[in-house]
Amino acid sequence: MTELADRWGLDPVFFWMRAGWRPKAPVEIDDTGVVHVYGHAECAEVYSDPKTYSANVAALLLGGDGLDEVLTEGTLTQADPPKHTKLRRAAGYAFTPQTVAGLEPAITTIVDELLDAVVGKGRLDLVEDLSYPMPVIVIADLLGVPHSDRELFKKWGDEMIAAAGEVPVEIGDAQRDEIDVAAALGHVPELHEYLREHVAERRRNPREDLLTRMIEVEVDGERLSENAVVNFARELLIAGHSTSSAALGNLLLCLDAHPHQLARLREDPGLAAGAFEETMRFLSPIAGSSRATAADVELAGVRVSKGSFVRLWLAAANRDERQFTRPTEFDIDRAPNPHMGFGRGIHFCIGAPLARLESRIAVTALLDRFPRLRTDPDDLVQFRPADDVLGVSRLTLLTD
Hints:
With 400 residues, the protein is an alpha+beta fold. The protein has one domain (2-398): CATH 1.10.630.10. It has helices spanning 2-8, 40-47, 58-62, 67-72, 83-91, 97-101, 104-116, 126-131, 133-143, 150-164, 173-178, 181-184, 189-204, 210-216, 226-257, 259-267, 272-282, 314-317, 352-369, and strands at 27-29, 35-37, 53-54, 123-125, 218-219, 222-223, 288-293, 297-299, 302-304, 309-313, 374-375, 382-383, 392-394, 396-398. It has a 5-stranded mixed β-sheet with strand order 1-2-10-7-3. The longest helix has 32 residues, at 226-257. The chain is globular and about 55 Å long.
């Protein structure tokens, strides 16, 4: 593990990637009062109890100044039941296995067109040429917004990631004047205005797209508010594609570092599904998640006070020796593989079927088109600047 971390130039913040790292306990509280959860069973326990462990951490971070409702209404990742249940039911139809499977021809066409553009160049930047544009085109088409605006989406997403990296767990009044907390939690005014315009246009001229569906759908006799529709679209457009993008980059990185398993995958494309799941465990794109305790609770024998900030280190849980044999080895044959890469329980990623399909199509096409595909040893891989998201921001691959 240390060899790979050094080869890739991983920042020390990704502590779970260092050989020999083991938590002293599955749950620890640091000097600032933050609760760190490293164990697989303990992460699963938190996910199974949304009443005690609230997903709405904005209220805790912002000190209840009223901005949290603006940020969280309509977001799946920061909603608790019954709001979460309502929103998930409203959006769920677009991500059923049957609906997602029907997208395969369109995704295949998108991947082929993107790869056509790099044929003959001798190299490609996986992120710029494929792993970013492919999923954002798919999601933009689902929502019904122009995928030609994807550079705007990237700009707004980069603002959120940069702001998130500057926000400490405890925010003082003075710090709030210096840090864009709203951007860190997903609120970029230009993006929201962009989506509001599309929502208003869809009210005038409904279409066969997800945005129209979210405007018109009724759950328990009620429609979603405009703010909820905008926030849902924002979360899906910016955050929803990021797992697919990061997972594909991480998959290629892992396969390049394990040439024997790469050769097996070339010979048998049917192994792509297992390779994807193992990547979600071994090099988890969503490395961490957060919760806020709504009541006093005990977790793994540790007393946790109401109002505590809880960090779920999913990537560490994916190396829990109590759950996985040989957890530091990359094994595309691993089965079962109950990784935490997509969360768990009611917050299991709604887009998981789509991410799996996109990854299978993309990696199969890459290996089929470029038999000598490999990383460029003279161009060091670059990672995103966030400690709870482990994904490449630049990965140069040689194709000849």
